[in-house]
Amino acid sequence: MNSAASRPSPGTGIYLGLLAALLTGLLLVAVGPWRVGVGLGGVSFVVAGAGRMVLTEDAAGLLRVRRRWFDAAWMMFLGVSLTVLAMVVPKGF
Question: In the chain, where are the structural domains located?
Answer without folding.
Answer: 33-87
